[in-house]
């Protein structure tokens, strides 16, 4: 099996030997590919522009990924550009393809640079690929800028918040850490993952509780409709309020005795119980 490095060098040499295309020849090949799906024309377009792919991939070699992989991803972007290129527009293919090549390489870097997915929005993507360059440029400007000042300037330049800049900076300066790595070097068997266990309820338990609460609220609302006005007033004041009113207080309000309030309450509770059992037998059990 060949190593990556010799293959990369052979690819570079082949790209450098490929002839350039003048405008008319490039247009003719593009038309043949678009209208006739001439694969030979596509091959010549792609081969003649591999210099562009290699040059652009080299600009991203400091992200810790093999140059050969970056070139391959750039080639994917080049083929995508060829599939979408419209030769009737008076634009050179290299100008059009540059965007697709760069986008393909950047997407590959974002997918593989870290196991934690980042740079999902255009602003975050711009922050990922420009943070180091802007920070280095600001550090060289006359006058000593503090870290906060540099963060502020970068946030303004890229249209993101300062907290986003700080978060991305921390991600770029630290490598991924395994959850199975030990917490300390003193021989302890504890791993980082041991401290991620939540004591809260599981998601399915939370969802089940929400559904049950909503269902019981509907059952109770329907059951309350069997009560008359006086029974409803007594139940609401005695059972459905945080500060349950006393029998004496309700009796004084309604102009009846405490004992009569108790009797009406018991009758109302029996009516509610019967109504709830008919609507949902599990209500009272739960």
Explain the overall architecture.
The protein has 286 residues and is mostly helical. It has 3 domains: 4-112, Four Helix Bundle (Hemerythrin (Met), subunit A) (Up-down Bundle); 122-173; 213-285, Orthogonal Bundle (Arc Repressor Mutant, subunit A), CATH 1.10.10. It has helices at residues 4-17, 23-36, 39-48, 50-58, 67-84, 93-112, 122-139, 147-158, 162-173, 203-224, 229-238, 247-254, 258-279, 282-285. α2 (23-36) packs antiparallel against α3 (39-48) and α12 crosses α13. It is elongated, with a radius of gyration of 36 Å.
Short description:
About 15% of the residues are buried. The chain has 3 domains: about 5-110, Four Helix Bundle (Hemerythrin (Met), subunit A) (Up-down Bundle); about 120-175; about 215-285, Winged helix-like DNA-binding domain superfamily/Winged helix DNA-binding domain (Arc Repressor Mutant, subunit A), CATH 1.10.10.10.
CATH architecture annotation of the largest domain: Up-down Bundle
The averaged pLDDT comes out at 82
The count of helical stretches stands at 14
Query: Total domains, how many?
Result: 3
- Kindly identify the CATH topology of the largest domain: Four Helix Bundle (Hemerythrin (Met), subunit A)
Structural class: mainly alpha
Radius of gyration, whole Å:
36 Å
Q: How large a portion of the residues is in β-strands, by DSSP E?
A: under 5%
Which outline best applies?
elongated
Main sheet makeup = none
Extended strand count: 0
Helix content: 55-70%
Determine the oligomeric state from the structure. single chain
Q: What low-confidence regions span 5 or more consecutive residues with pLDDT below 50?
A: 1-6
Order of helices and strands: HHHHHHHHHHHHHH
End-to-end separation in angstroms reads 66 Å
- Could you name the CATH class of the largest domain? Mainly Alpha
